[in-house]
Amino acid sequence: MWHFKNISNRDSSLKSLMYLVLMMLSVLIVIAIARAEWSSLATQNLPLCIAENEQRFPVLVSDAEGGAIVAWSDARHANRDVFAQRISATGETHWNANGIPICDLPSSQSWPLIVSDTVGGAILVWGDTRHGNQDSYAQRIDANGNKLWDPEGMPVCTHPTLQDDLNAIADDKGGVIVVWEDWRNGNQDIYAQRIDASGKPLWEANGVPVYSGEGDQYDPVVVADGEGGAIFAWWDISTPDWNIFTQRLSADGKPMWNSGDNEESTPIPVCTAIGNQGAPVAVSDENGGVFFVWSDYRNDPNFYTRAQLYAQRITAKGDALWAEDGILVCDLQVNQQQPDCIPDGNGGFIVTWWDERNIFADIYAQRINANGEALWHDDDSDTEKGGIPVCTEGGVQRLPQLVPTDDAGAIVYWLDYREDFGDSTEDAIYAQRLDADGQPLWHKDGIPVCSAPKSQITPQAIPTSTNAAIIVWGDARGSDEDIYIQRIP
Question: Residue 181: which CATH number?
Answer without folding.
Answer: 2.115.10.20
